[in-house]
Structures are given as structure tokens and as C-alpha cells.
Amino acid sequence: MADVPPCVALVTDYGIDDTYAAALVGACWRVEPRLRCVSVTHGVSPGDVLAGAYHLKAAARAFPAGTVFCAVVDPEVGTERRAIAIETPEVRCVAPDNGLVTYLWLEAPADRRRCVSLPVPANASPTFHGRDLFAPVAARIACGASLDEVGTPVDAPHCLAEAVARVDATVDGARASCRIAVVDHFGNAITTLRLADLDGREVVAARWATGETRLVVRTYADIPPGEVALLVGSAGHVELAARRASAAALTGLGHGDAIEVELAPLGFRGWSA
Amino acid sequence: MADVPPCVALVTDYGIDDTYAAALVGACWRVEPRLRCVSVTHGVSPGDVLAGAYHLKAAARAFPAGTVFCAVVDPEVGTERRAIAIETPEVRCVAPDNGLVTYLWLEAPADRRRCVSLPVPANASPTFHGRDLFAPVAARIACGASLDEVGTPVDAPHCLAEAVARVDATVDGARASCRIAVVDHFGNAITTLRLADLDGREVVAARWATGETRLVVRTYADIPPGEVALLVGSAGHVELAARRASAAALTGLGHGDAIEVELAPLGFRGWSA
Amino acid sequence: MADVPPCVALVTDYGIDDTYAAALVGACWRVEPRLRCVSVTHGVSPGDVLAGAYHLKAAARAFPAGTVFCAVVDPEVGTERRAIAIETPEVRCVAPDNGLVTYLWLEAPADRRRCVSLPVPANASPTFHGRDLFAPVAARIACGASLDEVGTPVDAPHCLAEAVARVDATVDGARASCRIAVVDHFGNAITTLRLADLDGREVVAARWATGETRLVVRTYADIPPGEVALLVGSAGHVELAARRASAAALTGLGHGDAIEVELAPLGFRGWSA
Which residues of chain B lie closer than 8 angstroms to C64, CB-CB? Predict the structure, then answer.
């Protein structure tokens, strides 16, 4: 092991009021007690795979290269659902094969990503593969095991169709059909629409079931009190935000809800008066 | 100190919105800054000693041998209640002597467990023995201090009678009178009934104040939507669970509530059609 | 770097259900992967600078000297508000200049404290200076950078007037006008009134909008059920507490509410019967 102990980063829907989250740390330390284990979040809503996929992507951007992610949002634990490990130039990650790695996989170069299927240990608790399968494999990968040492190659992981916005050209620009991936702690409603999806266009407005906004700002303090605005958040996704208030509460939008974002034509450079 | 820094694991009812939980880490690091400190959970309901005892047991199973637990659910802090440290072949633990170590103590061989009473430092805050007594002693034990160096031998810690199910033989099997030890993040209602209590029998049904179930499954995904089933959870306790729903909400059961579990006769091997 | 890796301690209002809090750890580890990063609390109410200032002080007392705090309660992120780092004999801390460091600064000797203004990196996300400015600077300071290496000297940080109780002498002692700085996890309502403010006097009563108490105790277990009492908490602030109940709920007091504390005359030594 290198002078600096490798890092395993945890993303789950376990909450932190039980011992499930810490059991992942214990399981990693049974493999190698010098591992740095960090709880990225255990606050994914139970079973919310889309939110988990977003958080995993946001975390991967924030941690140094070489970090191994152990992601567990796994309502089908103990069934025939596949367990996987993936590797991209940016990140390695173990997870159930239910779409959790969608962004990590789709945003990696197609010729520089790999996926393996993981065997289930004979003595694994049927209700707790996090402790008995995912964390130990993440620890082994962090300690230097290759994907081929921990699993069997498969073509690709399952990816969530709804994690990717659909952008359609219109007469006067484009329209992105997307969803709310996450409502964060401050009530910001973060969409599935990414900077890369904009293809150089700018966001000009958004429309949802019960309202709309044409306010586009740079940061939260630029939003007039009581209003809802659009901005590009710190993980590169378009979000609805408010000033010292919850945009989710103001709009009624929640996880998974549909929202349409209007994009300016290519070459648009802001509104003239 | 060894090449791998020892580990202190924390179990409290402090919550994580204040600085109380982190103050335990700070107190450990004042003793030895290389200690690995891990927050197992600070989400025990305030003052809920039975839940704390369960979480402590579940965590002890998940961490490597040698881990020292610092458990603080301590509504009587600052009074004459005793502070203790225990040692078993599996675990060492400091805690107030109010039943928190019940499972750790009862599940250890009677001739291989020890308990000492800890002195209260003169300058300890009367409201915060976690920071001023328990964490520093846990850190010293982790660094190699023996129980005799930190306290005075006593016979045994206080153990909670309600933490142990009573199993009575019946005409057609047995009946276990137990309680809900914990309702977890997913709404699973975890009972005090342990695999060891079954003595080879199988769980076949459960009855509580307002309902019953005869459904016994292996994992959560096996439960039909809307139903409540019995299974053996990852810490070896029988629990009531539901499919992507809260069994606690569906049954109305909460921490400490009574529940009766019906056991098959010895030698029972499942239902014939 | 020393044999024992330096420590960065985090205090924010980010919550822990997203990846914002962990992103600070990732940002520190991008500077130096051996840093010990500890989440003191991410549970400050969104935007509540007074509560953040109290938690920062309480945490600074609990951690070893040399710990660098990274404090982010920053509703004005991305605007012209100043970012700062301070140094006192006890602590070093980076924060937005909105009053978060009030107690750290005011309780340090006037001739042994320094403050510098921090530049904003060109590529910083306008919505996430925690990740892109504060955490990296905290990591650099922890690794040995001086304040002069990370910023430009300024006179003093902004301090919150409402963080300090006003004590006025009265005919029969003194009266302290203060506020609730924090309601903690147990419902204790912690005031801005500090031991140092008492100047040797003792607390004898408190009055708030809807009630009063003349009960002063040493620890929680001394409070009769159903009653609200005054005590000096573990960080040296006067608080209202109840027995296995929430003093905040019993009194209706919340963050920022005004409360008046009556102090005995100098030399007072308790009530005679």
C-alpha cells in the first residue's frame, strides 16, 4: 500500500441513525485498517436510484482521482439483480446494477470504461450486501485489486433513461425535457439537464406543471426574495433556486418530477432591452 | 502504538446537529491524535438505552476485533450512576452503567468478560461526561491501557431485562415474548428475539396489539407490496419488514412495544402445501 | 508534514443528505490526502450565522490546539462579501466574513489575533466557495501555510452584536439581556450569556416572552419532571433545560429569541431558607 492510504467513499440510502452506514466502514477496515473511509452521503431517499446517481457523480468530481466509491441504493438486495464494479479514467465504483452508475458510465469515454459482474459471497446476509459484498470489494479495489480480480467482464451496466435530458431543436432555440434529480438541503431543485447537454446554448426559462420562470442568475444572492430562478449549480446541472427559501417548496417540485427548460438559439448572448 | 492506529467507535444519542458528537473525537485526539475515530451512530433516540444496546451489538459485529466502543446514552449524567468499562473476547467498551452494554456482556462467555468502575475526573463538566470521561478513557484503552489501569473491578454491569426475549414451550412449538428494540431508517421493526434464542426452532408467525403476520421471508424483495413479513436481519435479530414501505408505519409498532413471535416445534422444516 | 497529520474541522449549514459536506473533505484531500478531516457539524440551520458562531466556539474548545476550522454558513456566497482567515492563540479558522468567527475573535487577546482577507480563485463556482475557496485554504493552513501566504491583512472580522449579552447592574444584582444562540438536539435552549459575562455573579432566574424560572441546577438529572431550569452548559454558556424533555418546546423559545437572565449581586452565595 502506498504511503498515503487509499480512500473508499460511501454513497447510500442507509441514513445514519442505525449502524448500517458504519458497518461499511467496519467491513472496509476488516480488509485493510489503514483505508481512509469517508461517508459522502447516506441521505439518498430510500430506493431513489436517480438521486443516488446524481450524488455519486457530484461526489466523484469532488474527490481526488483514485478514490473508490461504494454506492448502495439497493431495494432488490438478495435477489438475482446483478452486482457490479466499473472503472473509468476518473473513478472506480462498486454498486448494484440498477442505474446508480449511470452518470459515471455515460460521461466516460466509451473506449476507456469497463464493467464487471461481482459474485455474491456464500455467507452474505441476504439483506445486507453493502456490508458483505460491496464494501469488501471496494476495499480490495482501493488496495490495488484489478476489476478482473474481483469480477467477470460484462458489456455495460444498466443506465437510467430518465437521468438524461432530451433536447429538441425548436423554431427559436431548443427545449430540454428533463426531471428533478434531487431536491437538496436548501430546497434547490436540481435537474437532469447538464452543461454538456446545452451544446453551447444558454438557459433562458423553465416551465413545470404549475408555473414557470424566466429569471436566470449566477448565484443564490442574485435572486430577488420570493422568486424562483435558474442557475448552473456546482456539479454542472441546471437547478431551480430561491433566495433563503426552498425553490422546491415555492414550485411544488419534488424528486423525479418533469420540467421543461427553454434554451436560447446557438450564438445567443443574453437579452437586449 | 502499532503501525495501524487503533480505532475508537462512537455510539450515542447526541444527534449530529450540535458539536457534542465531534467533541468526543476531539477528546480522543487530545489523548492520541493518530486514533481512527468513527461515528457508528449518534442517532439513538434521546435516552433510549435499549436501542443503544442493540446498535452497540450490531456495530461490534461489523468492526474488526480490537475496536474500542465509546457508548453514551446517559440521561443520568452527573448523578451517582456508575461509569464502566467492559472487556470481552470480542470487544471493549466504555459506557454509563445503565444497560447499554447488555448484549455485549450477555453474549460473551461468563469466564472471559470483565467490568470495571471508572472514576469521574474532578474537572468533568456535570453535563458532559462523554467528552470529559468516556472518550478519554476509550482513547486510553485503545492506546493500550488495561481495564485495571482505568478503573476498579466490579462484578457485572447492569443489564436490561427487557432486552432478552422470554421463550416458552407450547403444545405446538414455542412462543417468544419480546419487544421492538429499534425501528430502523427503512421502518423495519427489529425485535429483541435473536437467532440464539430460537434454539434451532424457526419463526412462523408474529402477533402484536393490532395485527399479526404468518409471512416469513429471506429478504425484503420477497415481501408482497403492502404486506408485513418476518425475517432474520443482518445482526441476527428477528424483524418485521415491508416492501419499499415502513413496517413500523403499517403495524403501528414503535420502540419498546411488545410483540409475540410464534416458533415452530424443534425439527420443523417448513410448511407442506 | 509532521508525523501526525494535521486536522481540518468542518462546521457548515450544508446538511449531510447531499454531497456538499463531503466535497469539503475531497477538496482538502486534493491539497493533502493525509489530512485528518472531521465533520464537527453540518447541522447549523441554513443561514443561521449566530448558531454557527456558537458551534464553532464549542468545537474549538473540544479539539486539540493546531486544529484548523473551516466554517461555512454563507448565504451571500458569490457576492462581494469578504472571505477571511483568522488566527488566535487557540485556533485558526477560515470563513465568510459575516460574523461566524465572532466568539473565536472576541474571546482571544486583542494583541494576539490576526485576520486576513482571502482572494477568490478565478475558477471558483459562484455557488460553492466552500469547495473551491474555503476548504483548500484551510488545508493549506493546516499543512503549514501562514496567514500571510493565503491572504491580505485586514483589521478585524465582522462580529455579531447580538452574540454578546448586555449586562446591566440593578438595585439587587444585575440583569443580562441575551438571546437563544442554539436549540440543541435535546431541546436545551442555549443563550448567548457566558460564564465570563457573569463577572463572578451567579444566575438566579430567567424571564422570556411567555414565562420564567427561578430554578438553577448543576445537571439535567437534577431538574424535576415538567420543569424548566437554568444551568451552565458544557461550553460555558447559560442554558434553559428540562428533564428528558425539550426546554425549547416547554418554553416556546427558538433560535434568536430574546431572554433576560437575572444575576445575583457580587458575593452572593446561594439562597438562605
Answer: 26, 29-30, 33
Backbone φ and ψ for A60, nearest 5 degrees, come out as -60, -35
State percent of chain A over pLDDT 70: 97
Tell me which residue of B35, B37, B42 sits closest to B17, measured CA to CA: B42
Q: Which amino acid is at C74?
A: D
The DSSP code sequence of A195-254 is HHHHTT--EEEEEETTEEE--B-SSGGGSPTT-EEEEE-TTSEEEEEESSS-HHHHHT--
Distance CA A35, CA A182 (A): 30
Restricting to A residues 6-25, those with a Cβ less than 8 Å away from any Cβ of C are 7, 9, 11, 16
Rounded Cα distance, A20 and A22, in Å:
6
Instruction: Report whether A179 contacts A229 (CB < 8 A).
Output: no
pLDDT in tens, A16-74: 999 999 999 999 999 999 999 999 999 999 999 999 999 999 999 899 988 999 999 99
What distance in Å separates the CA atoms of residue B45 and residue B12, rounded to the nearest whole number?
A: 9
Output the average pLDDT for chain C.
94
- Pairing of β C68-72 and β C92-96: parallel
One-letter identity of residue A228: V
Nearest Cα to Cα of residue A138 among A125, A147, A148, A127: A147
Q: How far apart are CA A179 and CA B169, in angstroms?
A: 56
Half-sphere exposure of A201 (CA within 13 A, CB side): 24
Say if the Cβ atoms of B38 and A17 lie within 8 Å: no
Residue C134: count other Cβ atoms within 10 Å of its Cβ. Answer: 30
H/E element holding B52? helix B49-62
Distance CA B86, CA B164 (A): 19
CB count in 10 Å sphere of residue B202: 16
State which amino acid sits at residue A157: P
What's the pLDDT at C270?
Answer: 57
pLDDT greater than 50 at residue B273:
no
Residues 6+ apart with CB under 8 A from B212: B205, B206
What confidence tens digit (pLDDT) does each residue in C234-249 have?
999 999 999 999 999 9
- Give the containing element (helix H, strand E) for B31: helix B20-31
Q: Hey, is B129 helix, strand or coil?
A: helix
Q: What confidence score (pLDDT) does residue B140 get?
A: 98
Q: How confident is the model at residue C268 (pLDDT cuts 50, 70, 90)?
A: low
Amino acid of residue C94: V
Give pLDDT tens digits for C247-262.
Answer: 999 999 999 999 999 9
For C59, the closest chain B residue by CA position comes to B19
What does the pLDDT read at residue B78?
81
Separation between Cα atoms, residue C262 and residue C273, nearest integer Å:
19
Given a contact cutoff of 8 angstroms between Cβ atoms, the answer to whether B221 and B140 are in contact is no
Q: Chain B partners of C221 at a C-beta cutoff of 8 Å?
A: 75-79
Whole-complex ipTM: 0.92
Cα B118 versus chain centre, distance: 21
Please, what's the b/e burial string for A196-226 (b: 16 or more CB within 10 A of its CB; e: otherwise)?
A: ebbeebbbbbbebeeeebebbbebbbbbeee
> What torsion do the CA atoms of B12, B76, B53, B213 make, to the nearest 10 degrees?
-110
Sheet holding C83-87, edge to edge: C36-41, C7-12, C68-72, C92-96, C83-87, C114-117, C152-154
Q: Which of B229, B227, B240 is nearest to B193 (CA)?
A: B240
DSSP state of C36: E
Q: Running DSSP on this structure, what letter comes out for residue A162? A: G
Once rounded to an integer, what is the mean pLDDT over residues A141-167?
97
What's the mean per-residue pLDDT of chain A? 94
Report d(CA C47, CA C33) in Å as an integer. Answer: 30
Residues of chain A in contact with residue C23, where contact means CB-CB under 8 angstroms, are 58-59, 62, 234
In the structure grid, which three cell numbers stand for residue C238, read together? 447559560
Q: Do A221 and C76 touch (CB under 8 A)?
A: yes
